[in-house]
Amino acid sequence: MQSDGSQIALAAVGGYGRGELSTGSDLDLLILHDGKSSESELLEFVHALLYPIWDGTSGSADIPRSVDYSVRTPKQTRDTAREDLKVAMGLIDLRFICGAESLVDEVKEVSTKDWRKGFAKRINEIRQILDNRYERTGELAYLLEPDLKEARGGLRDITVLRAIASSGFVPVALERIERAERVLGDIREALHIQSGRSKDRLLFHEQDKVAVALGYSDADALMGDVAQSARDVDYLMVSTWKLLNKDKERAHTTLDEPLLRLRSGVLANPWSRQTREDFVTFIGAGSAMVNIWEELDQEGEIASWLPEWSAVRSLPQRNYLHRHTVDRHMVETAVHAAALIRRVHRPDLLLIAALFHDIGKGSLEDHSERGERLIRPLVMRMGFNEVDISTIQLLVKHHLLLSATATRRDLDDPATIASVLALIPDLATLELLHALSVADGEAAGAGAWSEWKAGLVADLVRRVRAAMSGTTLAQQPELSDEQREHAQRGLLRADVRERDGGFSIEIISPDRPGLLSIVAGVLNLTRLDVRSARTKSHGKAAVMEWIVSPDPHAPRPTSEKLSADIQAALDGEIDLAKRIQERIDAYSKMTAIPFPPPEVETFLEASVDATVFEVRSHDRPALLFRIGEAITRCRVDIRSTIVTTLGAEAIDTIYVTEIGGGPLSPERAQEVAQSLAHALR
User: Fold this and answer.
1) Where in the numbering of this chain does the HD domain appear (predicted)?
2) DSSP category for residue 472
3) Which of 636, 645, 632 is nearest to 669 (CA)?
4) Is the pTM for the entire model greater than 0.90?
């Protein structure tokens, strides 16, 4: 109370009101007054209260707090809450700090009554705010670098659930997310401390430090706990929303009967034919299956049917290729496989293989080999016969075969087709594996699948099918008439065309030692990021097809400018090595994220007339330039190259011959491999 009899009170709202103030959290304050104080008196009070916080004398010495405050009378507070949902929800956690407690009690009583009375009218607004936020931030359980507070399933959702519970409109089982709230809160607190900043997004390079600080075995364990906690929160939100919409009758679906039978009792061992068919019907329902699967998983039904599922549940995949945890990725693969069942003779085998193709993940062992072993007892329990079990095992073991071969091997080389034929027994299995490859890639996302990759896989399947059928494929001409004319005249040509948000670039040039590194170097200096490439020698000419992503701040590439730059580099007018090193030095000043060292693998028998080298590395500036230079120094010819960039990882396959032709000896191959390894250090 002021000396003139006016009343003022200080109260906490939001997270501060709940007593959940972490190291870097904002202070959410409400200054209440009875309207009798003058504006200058209120301003003087606010300054006296907040200056110690603003100048850093309050809060952590390392992380100064921000203050979010408002100054209102009880009536102004009520009127604002009626118009502003954020204010109304913040008042749910109103807590008296000091001053005239009666003002705080008045606001708390009125705001609680208003919230309960008007909640039904605010349901649609709450839903819209949730949907807008989810669209902006994504799902916490499946993000590589998630926002712990704002993403779907995060701490903000827990606040919303608490607000819904306080309305008394529907029961909300908040006890189900007590652990999730504790886990996410502890991780956010550790993130603030480790980063020295008030932030909510857990970046990739910070995850190891936070994991150590909280006693996790590694960052994978940390992110697995994040994923499971987020799923628990999201499941409660979905369940609560079903109660809010209980007056909307659920539409009958074709899944009702098979699900009812599956949930009716303990499953026999082996499953009955009806049970197996019900399960296949369920997982073949497409996108309608996803939310139901999540509900069954959260209620423990999936683990009771399939104990093996527990090992991959919420298992994170901390790479840029996958957008989901292992279990959710397999569910999404089944969804995509459901759209392909008309392409195969045994849709049941396709769906089962899709749902369990990554079941072997979660250990240091090769997941395909481990998956082949784990899937056998699982599908035996389902009642499949021995022939079908063998087919499912093959699909799980070789689910990466077609995509890996198509993107890393020369499809014109007979040895490439022979390597696939040796593993696939018949056309029926080939069509199953093709559909599984497509579903797996589509489920992983744009970083792992594209029209270009789909076309390569389809081309490989076409060639293998022809070989199995004993037919001869019509050979496409290696060069068009226009390409041949340029090649024969010894002319350099670069043709740049827009494609899928980037550019496709065709380059025809007289072949010469070091051509690959020169072109790759020019593309690097032009600030074009190579996503994929295929290069091949045709007589005395080389034809190169590049798919690149541009730097948004760089000039748009043109055919004329690129041709001129490549010609200048070929003529020695550009010191590529020096210019590229300057760019690399600039990149080296940025914060580095630890990645495994590059690997070089040699395949002496993967081609009938060349030696194949495969380089796996984190994508980095001028990677292909370094590879080309290293090979050129060994005085060998590059017959063809296949470049694939998957997210942040590059896989470059190089077919190398001696100058006069023919594969390298083991000794020469080792020399080239060592040169590559040295160049990539």
Assistant:
1) 326-430
2) -
3) 636
4) no
